[in-house]
Amino acid sequence: MGNLTTQYERFADLVKEMADVGHAQALLSWDQEVYMPPQGAASRARAMGTLAGIQHDRQTAPELVDLVTALGVADLQGDMAVNLREVQRGQKRALSLPKALVVELTQTESLSHEAWVEARKNDDFATFQPWLEKIVELKRQVAEAVGYTGSIYNALLDEYEPHACVEEVGPVLADLRQRLVPLVAGIVDSGRGADKLFDQPFDIGPQETFGRRVMADMGFDLEAGRLDVAVHPFCSGTSPKDVRLTTRYSANLMQTSLFGIIHETGHGLYEQGLPDAEGMPVGSAISLGIHESQSRMWENMVGRSHEFWQHYLPVLADHFPQQLAGVHVDRIYAAVNQVESSLIRVEADEVTYNLHILLRFELEKAMIEGDLQVKDLPGAWNERMESYVGIRPESDADGVLQDIHWPVGLIGYFATYTLGNLYAAQLYRKASVDLGDLSGQIASGDLSGLLGWLRTNVHTVGQRRTAAELVQDITGEPLNVDYLMQYLEGKFKPLYGLD
Ligand code: ZN
């Protein structure tokens, strides 16, 4: 097999070719959401299936397996070690899953998705229940096949938040829940009414102009990325030099459109700042949680801050004089930070949002660990909604049937949203300390200090550190709920006149 250098070079060539297949997959799925006409769906699905098969064959090809084995005993250092570690992780997972199980899971997810669409439309959990039972059973089989230490749930969590485990993350999330519930109750009991500022139409043209202005100010490079319109906002891409963002505009949902752009731009800045490693794993994002920390930091800690609106209210008012002339910055700040107990996760504000997530995390963990039967899920859901957020769904359509995640087999995913908020708060605090006058910079419209800090401390690290290591390296301590709670209490208690 030749000497170590030759072996590593061959290994790298094969991995980069896999990245090129991934490049094609990413672009096809982006196109599917942005441009593809409806009748293109069938042939696109076949093409995607073929590419997934090619990817699997390459990942598990004997030559690559042998190279990984040979390099595994070679004590690689630095980026080479990171690349080997990540390829090994993916290969081990792919090799341990029997093909029959993969096929059955893919088919089940597709059928279960259809069943869920109907069930949600008809508010009929009973027709969806057997599908979810099957998904849970197959996911348990996946976990047994790939292996785990501690909870069986770790095998699923690891797919989205690599190297994390519930034994560490679970207590942090439980702590957060215990502290959030009274804060939400206090806000709801304060009785402050909703502001109607955004309950009026805003023309789409100027919305887009303003959104693009904020995006440029944040530092998103349009020579290395695009913003298009799609039904679901998302961020994808093929390399740091080609990052694709989408958003949607609606005259009656000005806030959703604007904060959607800021959120996705946060993701996009991370992608553009990753090391250009020609498709090698070291240049990839660390985890979904770290990715979400970047979007949530820009969306909430920056975009929903008083200092942000000190600078941007006059700019926005120039675009919308009819709606915003004479509006005080305190009013728009309050309007973009309204807290409401709502049943629907995607409409939730930044305080209650985490409770929606924690409920899902707890329930899916219990289902996978065998502590909760699927037939008991709606009841467990409704009870928790009532005790966490203070309202009980009238229907399963507004309750357990609202999310697409479980129907399509995304179990182990939800926790990454709240981990993202926790990482964001802890990192933002450190950025504020390091930068000295971050609030002042933002108030004067200068967002470059924060981006520079993120580039240095987070983006350029790529996958050289795990999420837990990154947080420890940057802030000098493990993930700590105090930062998110201090941030939320510091912002929302004054807004709602608490204490
Ligand atoms: Zn996101």
Descriptive report:
With 499 residues, the chain is mainly α. It has 21 helices and 3 strands. A 3-stranded mixed β-sheet has the order 1-3-2, sandwiched between helices. Helix 3 packs across helix 4 (78-96) and helix 11 packs across helix 17. The longest helix has 31 residues, at 4-34. The chain binds zinc ion. Zinc ion is lined by residues 263, 267, 292, 295.
Provide the fold topology.
Layout: H1 4-34, H2 41-59, H3 62-72, H4 78-96, H5 99-122, H6 125-146, H7 154-160, H8 166-190, H9 204-218, E1 225-229, E2 235-239, E3 242-247, H10 254-273, H11 288-302, H12 306-319, H13 321-324, H14 329-335, H15 353-369, H16 377-389, H17 415-435, H18 438-443, H19 448-457, H20 467-475, H21 481-495
Helix pairs in contact: 1-2, 1-3, 3-4, 5-6, 8-21, 9-10, 10-11, 11-17, 12-14, 15-16, 15-17, 17-19, 17-21
